[in-house]
Protein: N-acetylgalactosaminide beta-1,3-galactosyltransferase
Organism: Batillaria attramentaria
Amino acid sequence: MLPRRLSLINARFLTSVMIDESAARALHRQVRVLCWIPSTEKQLNSKVRAVNDTWVKRCDGHVFFVDTQHHNASSDVIELGVKDGRGHLTDKSVAALAYVYEKYGKDYDWFLKGDDDAYVVVENLKFLLSHYNPNTPVYLGHLYKWHLREGSGGASYVLSREALRLLNVNGIRRNKCRLTGHEDVEIGRCLHTVGMSSHNTLDRFGRETFHPLNPSTHIGADCCSQLSISFHKVNPDLMRVVDHLLYRTSVYGRNLDMKSLQLHFIEPGIVPPLE
């Protein structure tokens, strides 16, 4: 049991008392991100709860989109009027992107689409986004090696404010976005239809930051960026474990070289086409 004096200190202070969070806090104020997550009613008490308990609280705003059967009055859960099921993921995302643009398009700099079984390190995401201008059309995420236009929705993807506007005004409203097929592929194709290019999300060593599979599938000798942003197929228990290890555990004597990180880590720019 904690001494009475310590028990009166809030949990937030106890977890950060020996951590210098000044850089993360400064970036948090500068880069505003809305996180939107498609889900279903049956996941509200499992996957959605785990997301709420962990990474999504570090976004500047968030919203969950569910099917028409939901009757919860929670303000962060929105009914889209789209049928549930994998066969409707694309039209659900298109409807969600339209809603996000109408409701929040002017309130945030960036718009992250995450899954209810994805884990996102929001601070690392914001560091990557700080290299880009949200008033230009930018599309970021894990890119399939065989077709650089198409991102992996499971690994999460991010649109700048201007990218979201162009997607809606020149794509969704003009019926240029397909409502069937693989969601991540079709959204990527629609973005390119309206003139958008994919941007680099690799670190300077060529390592991925957005990971489309479970962490155990990716982990290896040189698999992942030191500033990895997302992993997919993370169950609620693992999500809470990862969150605890990242934010409540430190390794004595190991500190980030912030100067080298700022100068050399990310190499922003448009991904060149495959030859």
In short: The first strand starts at residue 33 and ends at 38. The radius of gyration is 19 Å.
